[in-house]
Amino acid sequence: MISGSTWDTISVELLEDLTTNRGVRLICILSDMIPYHFPHHFQDPESVAKFVHFVGFLARRAASVVCISHSTEREFVEFAQHVYGTSPVTKVIHLGSDSSMSRPATRPALPHDVDTRGFVLNVGTVQVRKNHQLLYNLWRRLAQTSGVALPYLVIAGAKGWLTSELLHQIEVDPIASKVIKVMHHVSDAELHWLYNHCQFTLYPALHEGWGLPIVESMQHGKPCIASSTSSMPEAGQGLTTSLDPLDFHSWQAKIIQWISDPGELKRESAWIMKHFRHRTWDNFRSDFFNHIDTLLSGQT
């Protein structure tokens, strides 16, 4: 079994030998096909080439590829059929998430007026694919023209690649710097507090393999505006507002609507709390080992 970002370090030649000459049956957990479809979102072309080489091997030699979403499965199968002419054995097993109810919550360092002004939350590594550029543009425009009491935008996520210029803009922009707060080092307890106390969350990523922050938002009963692409509607269970991540005006209109109507947010939150289906890591583990048992029994 192979899981995680092992494609960057593992020897495909060794795997070829194990599966071709030594009778090893390989199962791999595949999160996404992002480096193949979006090589321009990565800093190192060599890493992209390694990824494509690795998933090419999976398309030819893996006994089974476990995909974390139907979106990832579709992309991988299309890649295998188009590039290698193969029809790999795949299985979709959605990820789990930790329970939020028993976590400690610690207030992070935020402006004192955040309790009265409120804030909207975005969680995720600050990198090009996560589309923080849209959030910067939105909050800058809203600060100038919205005509509503604008809450802070809190971005909680480690600094990724290809974003230094954007972070510089946020920091020195005389308008955006007053309404956007970026937090690169957030503990689990602080993240729990942020989810608990935000008005709603935003997740405008251009592409995903799953979308864990969407699930975490719903776990906390918080409405989420998320992208309509790839796996994100799947992660949202039909309980999020899905918008085109490139449609600035649709995001602007929905954000203004939610800021202006607390009653609608309460109704959205109640609907989420009633219908959200929490999937645990035990669920993932059980489904995964059941899949292995099925493979070993020769039923697939």
Write the layout of secondary structure elements.
Layout: H1 12-21, E1 27-30, H2 34-37, H3 45-61, E2 64-67, H4 70-84, E3 90-92, H5 114-117, E4 119-123, H6 132-145, E5 152-156, H7 164-172, E6 180-183, H8 188-197, E7 201-203, H9 212-219, E8 224-227, H10 232-235, E9 241-243, H11 248-260, H12 262-275, H13 281-296
Parallel strand pairs: 1-2, 2-3, 4-5, 5-6, 7-8, 8-9
Helix pairs in contact: 1-3, 3-4
- Rg, alpha carbons: 21 Å
Helical fraction: 40-55%
Please write the string of helix (H) and strand (E) elements: HEHHEHEHEHEHEHEHEHEHHH
**Residue ranges: pLDDT <50 for 5 or more in a row?**
none
CATH architecture of the largest domain: 3-Layer(aba) Sandwich
**First-residue to last-residue Cα separation:** 17 Å
Q: Please, what is the CATH homologous superfamily of the largest domain?
A: Glycogen Phosphorylase B
Beta-strand residue percentage: 5-15%
Structure description:
With 300 residues, the protein is an alpha/beta fold. It folds into two domains: 6-96 and 280-296, no CATH class; 114-275, Rossmann fold (3-Layer(aba) Sandwich). Helices cover 46% and strands 12% of the residues. The chain contains 13 helices and nine strands. It has a three-stranded parallel beta sheet, sandwiched between helices. The protein has a three-stranded parallel beta sheet with strand order 4-5-6, sandwiched between helices. A three-stranded parallel beta sheet has the order 7-8-9, sandwiched between helices. The protein starts with 11 loop residues before the first helix and ends with a helix. The mean pLDDT is 94.
